[in-house]
Amino acid sequence: MSEQSPLIGLARHGQTAWSLSGQHTGRTDIPLTPAGEQAAAKLGGRLRSLGITTVFTSPLQRAKKTCEICGFGAIAAVIDDLQEWNYGEYEGLRSAEIRARRSDWRIFRDGCPGGEHLEDVVVRADRVVALLKSVRGNAVVFSHGHFLRVLMARWVGIAPDTGAHFSLDPASLSFLSIDPHSGDPVVERWNDVAHLSP
Q1: In the predicted model, is pLDDT for residue 192 greater than 70?
Q2: What's the CATH number of domain 8-196, 1.10.1740.110, 3.40.50.2300, 3.20.20.70, 3.40.50.1240?
Q3: Is 13 a catalytic site residue?
């Protein structure tokens, strides 16, 4: 990875009971599982070697706890915009249950009744991108799967619905940066879970 340009780490929170079961977890504030806490500790070992100077976290406990276990709770700024997609009427449902109601449903295209649509999430992501561009030094963001996929797309300037094609595992680590030669925003690494290997 480039040493000439600061890194922005994107850390998805550790496992929860609902991420394990495949239930859509937006604003329901559920804790990490014991396995999620263990994965967060491994993620922290990886992050602490990167010289992180700035930390942002979602206010939801699964992200905040991941941040704390990683050792950054004392310096983290809580940012409401980093919350997960508001799934509205689809909160707590699995994709198969949603498609039983609407067979062709795709979140990045259709959004969630009573919750957010992609355009709403983009507004939040754009504010976070502006914040990240003001950061000096390496930073890390603790947030959520769907939101981070939109954030990545907005960072590099591609269509936000492209985020549908980038999977993101619990306790994974991704990196955004600026190419030192072209000045273009880039994704340096995506969905890296090497630290979770036995």
Answers
A1: yes
A2: 3.40.50.1240
A3: yes
Residue-wise pLDDT for 39-56, tens only, equals 999 999 999 999 999 999
Q: What angle do CA 187, 111, 97 make, to 5 degrees?
A: 110
How do the domains of the chain map onto residue ranges? 8-196
pLDDT more than 90, % of the chain: 96
Catalytic: which of 13, 24, 144, 146? 13
Alpha helices in 78-186 (DSSP H): 95-101, 107-110, 118-133, 145-156
Q: What is the pLDDT of residue 198?
A: 80
Q: Is the separation of the CB atoms in 87 and 60 below 8 Å?
A: no
Catalytic residue among 84, 116, 144, 146: 84
89 is catalytic: no
